[in-house]
């Protein structure tokens, strides 16, 4: 395909969507009079007199005495106070809720919340959740790799070779995001394919990242579901000669 021809979109850039929990003051999700509650919260559990509401309100208000007295009295099918605490950037209260680790709550984990909100000091305490997936099938390793947080990847390696709902790996997400500092740590995922047969090298080719391409040349003979090699993809998207020579 010539450079002037219409090009197919090879690798659509899809951001990982990580749900956020807003404070009680910012949302009506805990309003007992609202018929639409995020996280499927029932009216009985969101009453302003319920333990759930009161504990989350105490976190918002920095009421340490109330938190210490009532931290075990919470319905974790709604949202765990551990996740809520981290997402509200109050990690100082996290130690009271470590019994919430691995609680049944599929939209988010405390570990992912800590990574997304920059509380990397909590990772060692939360890494038991490294194999858990959140919405979209993403793991903490995938989130950290996409963000380029190489300093915490070793603690998250129990999630290596996991794939999300699109069969993407942490290596693919790092390659597609240009995070070269993460590539060598994730080398065990080399040669894995996503749902379209694409490899991490193909993600790097689409983004024309020469540094990452050089690190993933072991994949250069692999074909995607359309039968294309990384070299053929590079020519389709009009990569510069310097890049194409690497793939020959």
Q: Can you describe what's shown?
A:
The protein is mainly alpha-helical and 248 residues long. It is elongated. The chain starts with 42 loop residues before the first helix and ends with a helix. About 17% of the residues have low confidence.
Keywords:
248 residues; single chain; mainly alpha
Distance between the termini: 17 Å
What kind of sheet is the major sheet? none
Strand content: under 5%
What's the total helix number?
Answer: 12
Low-confidence stretches: 4-14, 17-46
Order of helices and strands: HHHHHHHHHHHH
Helix content: 25-40%
Mean pLDDT: 81
Q: How many strand units? A: 0
In terms of quaternary structure, the protein is single chain
> What Rg, in angstroms, do the CA atoms define?
22 Å
Structural class: mainly alpha
Shape: elongated
Protein name: Ankyrin repeat-containing protein
Keywords: ANK repeat
Pfam families: Ank_2 (PF12796)
Organism: Spironucleus salmonicida
């Amino acid at each position: 395909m010539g450079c002037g021809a219409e090009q197919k979109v090879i690798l659509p850039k899809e951001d990982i969507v990580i749900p956020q929990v807003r404070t009680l003051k910012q949302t009506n999700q805990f309003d007992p009079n609202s018929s639409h509650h995020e996280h499927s919260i029932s009216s009985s559990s969101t009453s302003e007199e319920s333990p759930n509401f009161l504990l989350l309100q105490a976190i918002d208000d920095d009421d340490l005495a109330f938190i210490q007295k009532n931290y075990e009295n919470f319905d974790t099918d709604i949202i765990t106070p551990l996740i809520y605490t981290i997402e509200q950037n109050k990690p100082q209260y996290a130690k009271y809720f470590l019994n919430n680790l691995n609680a049944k709550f599929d939209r988010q984990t405390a570990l992912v919340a800590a990574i997304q909100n920059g509380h990397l000091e909590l990772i060692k305490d939360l890494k038991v959740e490294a194999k858990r997936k959140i919405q979209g099938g993403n793991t903490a390793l995938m989130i950290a790799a996409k963000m380029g947080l190489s300093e915490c990847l070793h603690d998250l390696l129990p999630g290596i070779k996991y794939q999300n709902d699109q069969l993407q790996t942490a290596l693919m997400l790092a390659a597609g995001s240009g995070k070269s500092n993460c590539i060598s740590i994730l080398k065990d995922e080399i040669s894995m394919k996503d749902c379209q047969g694409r490899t991490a090298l193909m993600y790097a080719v689409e983004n024309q990242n020469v540094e990452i391409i050089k690190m993933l040349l072991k994949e250069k003979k692999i074909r995607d579901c359309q039968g294309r090699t990384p070299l053929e993809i590079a020519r389709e998207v009009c990569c510069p000669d310097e890049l194409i020579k690497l793939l020959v």
